[in-house]
Automatic annotation (TrEMBL):
Protein name: Scavenger receptor class B, member 2c
Record GO biological process: protein targeting to lysosome; receptor-mediated endocytosis
GO molecular function, one term: scavenger receptor activity
Phylogenetic placement of the source organism: Eukaryota, Metazoa, Chordata, Craniata, Vertebrata
Database matches in InterPro entries: CD36_fam, LimpII
Compartments it resides in: Membrane
Family: Belongs to the CD36 family.
Transcription regulation found in the keyword field: no
GO cellular component annotations of the record: lysosome; membrane
Keywords from the named record: Glycoprotein, Membrane, Transmembrane, Transmembrane helix
Amino acid sequence: MKRCCTYTLGVVSILLLVAGISLVLSKVFPRFVHSMVEKEVVLKNDTDAFEAWENPPAHIYMQFYFFNVTNPLEVLSGERPAVVEVGPYTYREYRPMEEVAFQENGTKVAAVNTKTYIFQPEMSRGPESDLIRTINIPAVTVMKKFQNVFLANLVSAYMRTLGVGLFTTRTVGELLWGYQDDLLASLQKFQPQLDDVFGLFYKSNASNDGQYVFFTGELNYRDFARVDTWNGESSLNWWSTAECNMINGTIGASFHPVITKDEMLYIFSSDMCRSLYAIYEEDVVVKGIPAYRFSPPSEVFGNTTANAGFCVPLGNCPGSGLLDVSTCKQGAPIVLSSPHFYQAEEKFVEAVFGMKPNKEQHQTTIDVNPLTGVVLRAAKRLQVNVHVEKLPHYSETGDVRTLIFPVVYLNEVHTPTHTQHRCGATAAALLLRRHPR
């Protein structure tokens, strides 16, 4: 009997070992965990996913790097601009979801994403009162708007009276959050709808960009936090093709669970007036937690057939690596790119002395935990430029070259503080909730 029991136990142990190995090799356990996560990661009250979506646990910082012009007189004489990067000027960003309202039996949820920026002097190069010499964007916008000979001569004469030129010197705070512009204030008398305050991020602090309606993921886990409509519209109207006007993906704060390496992560950015995508680049580890690094490929801003609709009017493309957003910025000649024209055509880099594109410093990266879709770490980088050229009837432009002039680039940094704990605990919490001891 003793020998029989010993033999039986041995056989059972071997069978259990073989079964365990078979389960691991057949990926039953990973599939089981994936299935649980897909069902549990949904935007609904009293869940970890909803809490993290409503009040992101990660610390988010917005860093601004300005390009200070060192040779303005030479630029007006037709020489190549020389700029010096100044920064960072860092702000803590708070971005809770507010006015949350569930719709259609919990399959959708409406909200506004209010963003507030608080200056962090200890993380900045200097105070917000630092002076920066840069392109006078309001003046360039006005000059481009009034090209009629009579009006151009009139505006040019008035600009000389005000002492307004192609360049301006303003504080960091003014350039970011707004200042009253004398030229705009004068024009406002004839066009009351015109705002006399200009700032690169004017009206962006302690405010939101409108109402979003998101899918909750209740019907399909891949729809988790995906944008359904923005300001009541399911598509944009700035671009010339339906494909370019599509609103795709999430707002970039989180993604659906169970992410694979061969998929594209779509992001809708109202600041960029478009949707874009990121692809898998490499495996990384963020404070002990595995993650996939995704980044936008060069094709996102490339001169490709798929991007032809972003050239407005049709065929008016600024060049590979650039996005002209003047059509959605009230006519201001704003052109977006990666910092230091990273991944753009070399001619844009060579046109401005001081450009030093570098992948490590200027690439946008998003490190996502593939199981939960939680963003563990991110560096979202974008540069604001101005299209500058010599304009007839405006002596203020001198003999300036036609070029894309860099003004500032921003780096939105998501740090892994607290996030790694939430991410690491999510899968275990899901299983324990369904299968308590």
